[in-house]
């Protein structure tokens, strides 16, 4: 499945921007170039759990949706959507969502809500990431060997930081990806492991610990048949791809007012950014439609905009600064090159980025760990919780 195959375009190397999508022939304005598949992993934030349909992502201006699946706590806009979700999720998947729902409710009732953030927090580097995940993995295997149920304290407990806190959003995001891995292992390899990965995707040590804790917590409630997909490799890959590939799930239009969650759509992940995009997108249910907004000539790159709302009106320095700070790349689009010149001059004009590690580095430990090609070295830094595509 990945890179996406199409009569209309092909995926090719783009100087300074990894891979991108190139028109295979002339395309007339308004032609649809891609209808994506549903996400391979996604989350609808816990605060929207009663308001967004788990199947088609419909949001009815904050109203509580009428169909509730009591086993999993999910809501739907109709019985039809509920049935479609149950069919798609499968027996094992349904049981896993049921167990997670029960786990979250029990933890919450027990007063073990999300913990505080350590006062001493920073962006963890590759070594810290490796160590935390190794510790989590060791914890899971030793408890399993001993036949005990798991209850992971996490490294932060010693510092009194996050104790056994739970994060329903990270748990839900990871579970959705674990189920995808379980149901479609071949497509996981083809579609997910070939995406651009961020080696150091955790914005804080708290974020890292939350992911490690979530992995251990999921391991403790997962049925034996799913445990083969609930691995450190799968959970780390899910965090690594979300940074550079996730699309925000918003109500209404592209810049919709409610930011309800995010998802990873591999076939749509090859569109590079341009400050003068020739492709627009719209979410249709749980997938995305992309179409060209002008006539495009054969050989031209098809680009969307990663900027939202008013950001499109910023000047070149501000746009490049913003894309650098949020996405970690220096924009090399035609408009920026025309207005701002070559990117060597950008360093002088861009303020110090938010994050300081991992930028333009060679393949990192994660890629090596998984035997993956490091396809794009412009890899850094998007806050995990705020994808903006
Ligand atoms: C969703 S991926 C797009 C596909 C990606 N180029 C690939 O090789 O798979 C986003 C990443 O592509 C790169 N990218 C996208 N637009 C760019 C641009 N205008 N200039 C430079 N790099 C860009 C950045 O590394 C960004 O993090």
Automatic annotation (TrEMBL):
PROSITE patterns given in the database record: SET (PS50280)
Pfam families xref list: SET
Classification via SUPFAM superfamilies: SET domain (SSF82199)
Residue ranges of every copy of the SET domain listed in the record: 7-307
InterPro entries: H3K4_H4K5_MeTrfase (IPR050869), SET_dom (IPR001214), SET_dom_sf (IPR046341)
One annotated Gene Ontology cellular component of this protein: nucleus
UniProt-listed PANTHER family: HISTONE-LYSINE N-METHYLTRANSFERASE SMYD, POTENTIAL PROTEIN LYSINE METHYLTRANSFERASE SET6
Identification of the protein by name: Histone-lysine N-methyltransferase set-6
Organism expressing this protein natively: Friedmanniomyces endolithicus
Recorded name of the encoding gene: SET6_2
